[in-house]
Amino acid sequence: MSVGDVAVRAAGVWKRYGGGLTQVDALAGVSADFGKGRFTAIMGPSGSGKSTLLHCLAGLDKPSDGKVFLGDVDLTTLPEKQLTHLRRDRIGFVFQAFNLVPTLSALENITLPLDLAGRKPDQDWMTTVVDTIGLMDRLRHKPSELSGGQQQRVACARALVSRPDVVFADEPTGNLDSRSSGDVLDFLHRSVREFNQTVVMVTHDPTAASYADRVLFLADGQLQSELVDPTAETVLDAMKQLETQQDTADELAG
Ligand SMILES: Nc1ncnc2c1ncn2[C@@H]1O[C@H](COP(=O)(O)OP(=O)(O)OP(=O)(O)O)[C@@H](O)[C@H]1O
């Protein structure tokens, strides 16, 4: 991938927690490019480092070693204040727990990041995003008056409204039934196809990963393999293979 096509780059990223006997290398030298206008899923067994990688890529956490670039900006050397501004202006987040403000309406939640940044929403873009999430008639409702799937679509719209360079989604369908998951994933997929959005998503779910263009598989803090144009079946097979490798390695380690 040429440098201009890369939205986010991890270069030899390590994340070490603790020391001595309790030391854990959550990430052990991860290098990966995330293309502009691409939808990438990150998968791997529990504890393999998925969330840690996402947090390092999004500038929410600092690697112990290695570098993370958003475009040509090195996040690992950016002073905290500039990093905060960069996260606000250039990155969108979707979390498993929706994280909407309960006292605000759906519409107010969507425009909150822009309001906080003192920016006016681009009305055409707002209409496009709100149209795409299919909640035009629900915008005056509070989160508690919306279903989980509707709340997560509001959270996706909030992530997209500032036209960020990248949307990072950490288990966005983890709390949803399969139908609501499909709605949220359709929305993320359309944002990539129709608006050239870049999306990086951590998931446990092979069906969710099949909406992506590419799946990266982590085990023990390292990239093990990747799949291009995945289907739920090929993702499931790759996960099974990883688990078998892991079991064999565990047996050999005694
Ligand atoms: N703050 C921390 N302090 C110590 N160890 C941590 C910390 N955060 C994560 N770890 C460890 O780092 C490893 C990777 O954790 P991480 O949460 O990134 O994995 P994951 O693949 O996202 O797991 P899951 O699928 O269960 O959410 C795990 O062994 C975890 O226990």
TrEMBL record:
It comes from Kribbella soli. Gene3D superfamilies: P-loop containing nucleotide triphosphate hydrolases. The lineage of its organism: Bacteria, Bacillati, Actinomycetota, Actinomycetes, Propionibacteriales. It comes from the Bacteria. This is ABC transporter ATP-binding protein. Keywords: ATP-binding, Nucleotide-binding, Transport. InterPro entries: AAA+_ATPase (IPR003593), ABC_transporter-like_ATP-bd (IPR003439), ABC_transpr_LolD-like (IPR015854), MacB-like_ATP-bd (IPR017911), P-loop_NTPase (IPR027417). Residues 8-245 form the ABC transporter domain. CDD domains: ABC_MJ0796_LolCDE_FtsE. GO terms for molecular function: ATP binding; ATP hydrolysis activity; transmembrane transporter activity. One of its GO terms (cellular component) is membrane protein complex.
